[in-house]
Amino acid sequence: MDNTELTFEQAMAELEEIVKRLEKGELTLDESISFFRRGVELTKYCNKKLDEAERSITMLIEGENGVIEKELPELDQGR
Amino acid sequence: MTVSEVNKYIKDLISRDLILSGLWVKGEISNFKNHYSGHFYFTLKDEKSLLKCVMFRSNASLLPFMPEDGMKVIIRGYVSVFERDGQYQLYAEEMQPDGIGALYVAFEKLKKKLEAEGLFDASRKKKLPYLPRAIGVVTSSTGAVIRDIINVLSRRFYNVNLKLYPVQVQGEQAAGQIAAAVRRFNELGNVDVIIVARGGGSLEELWPFNEEIVARSIYESRIPVISAVGHETDYTIADFVADMRAPTPSAAAEIVMPERAVVENRLDSLKLRLRNAMLKKTAMERLLLRKVEGSVAFRQPLNRIYQDRMLLDVQKKYMQKALSALDTKYRNRLSLLAATLDSLSPLKSLARGYSITKSKKDGSLVKTIHAVSVGDRLEICLTDGRLGCTVDSIEEDSNG
């Protein structure tokens, strides 16, 4: 399945829906299995989304050829 | 005394009065005229009386608002006499809306106008993304606000993507810059949410966030906007238009980004629930399977076959029996028929001495004397051969 268009939020919402449907227990075994597979796929996708973002703190500066992103000097970020 | 002298004397008298040379007067404006010369002419009134007023261009041009009829104001000035008309009047040097600041009047006016236009409608408010991929911030690049926002964001979600669009947040340029920055983020489309922020300050310092141009840029933004201006108690027009108002810039950072740990917990709990639900389902299905497996059909699956086979055997026996009975029956009947047939056979008659006479001419059987004539050739079949004969005579039996 293609998740590229899915936002984190959409993926979470779908996952939540799947869990609810599964918990109701009204699905057939085959349906349950395919829902479960999709659920596992979505959790992997969400985990990936959480980790793929890289820390980036920049300042936009209007230049001759549009906007330039300059890294903002970090002071006390208190990580 | 001349008229002029009287008026001049009165003017001198009034000018020497300490109270009249510098006073604050409260009243309602009427007959307001904005003269082409730039001077304001109007009347100040209360329930009982009127006072003629003039505000010269030098003072009038500095007013942050345009007076109008019905407006309640406080005016600082002095009373003097206009000698030509023999009329005393208040020379206004400063004017403030009564009780509330001029800015507040402007604020209320714009608020009412934009509200009527629907800029504050709840139905227009956009939902904030749960986990924005990138956050745009419109504020000053110096000062505590951007640092506070970065600090809070970093604490909540270290891998944050923040883009600051630096602007002035007070002074004449500020409103235009803030509005342009919001529009620019929309053009670039490189953030999922925008925070418009400024630290605490006086009403004048926060003023850019009360300007119509800022309100409109926020209203027109396709990207959700969080306003975070001043302290918790400060409300700006931007707050009303924004999709979400944060009481402070730090609060905006908390609103815009969930804590990573919270997100992870939510995800983990969903994962666990997913697994449990599936386990429960398979356990249930297995139980059902066990039940089916436990049934007789599964415990002795060949039972049915044995039973059927036995039945088959019995049937087979019946069939064989029936067949052989049929066989015997037909066999008996056959031998009976054969015996009958045998008894009817002409050969048997021949053996007993009978003979068969046939016409030699056409081989037809001769059964009557009338079928032949004297001299006809006949063939007589006996049991062991044939005789060729010629008819010599024909005698009819008397009783034939």
Plain-language structure description:
The complex is a heterodimer of chains A (79) and B (400). With 79 residues, chain A is α+β, with helices and mostly antiparallel strands. Chain A has one domain. In chain A, 52% of the residues lie in helices and 18% in strands. Chain A is built from 2 helices and 2 strands. Chain A has helices spanning 8-24, 29-52; strands at 56-63, 66-71. In chain A, strands 1-2 form a two-stranded antiparallel sheet. In chain A, strand 1 (56-63) and strand 2 (66-71) form a beta hairpin. In chain A, helix 1 runs antiparallel to helix 2 (29-52). The two termini of chain A are 37 Å apart. In chain A, 22% of the residues are buried. The model of chain A has no long low-confidence stretch (mean pLDDT 83). Chain B has 400 residues and is α/β, with parallel strands linked by helices. Chain B folds into 3 domains: 3-99, Nucleic acid-binding proteins (OB fold (Dihydrolipoamide Acetyltransferase, E2P)), CATH 2.40.50.140; 118-258, 3-Layer(aba) Sandwich (Rossmann fold), CATH 3.40.50.2300; 349-390, no CATH class. Helices cover 44% and strands 22% of the residues of chain B. Chain B has 13 helices and 13 strands. In chain B, strand 9, helix 8 and strand 10 form a beta-alpha-beta unit. The A-B interface holds A 7-9, 12, 15-16, 18-19, 22-23, 25, 27, 29, 32-33, 36, 39-40, 43, 46-47, 49-51, 53-62, 67, 69, 72, 74-79 and B 129-131, 133, 141, 146-147, 150-151, 154-155, 158-166, 184, 188, 260, 263-264, 266-267, 270-271, 273-274, 277-278, 280-282, 284-285. Strand 1 (56-63) of chain A pairs parallel with strand 7 of chain B, so a sheet runs across the interface.
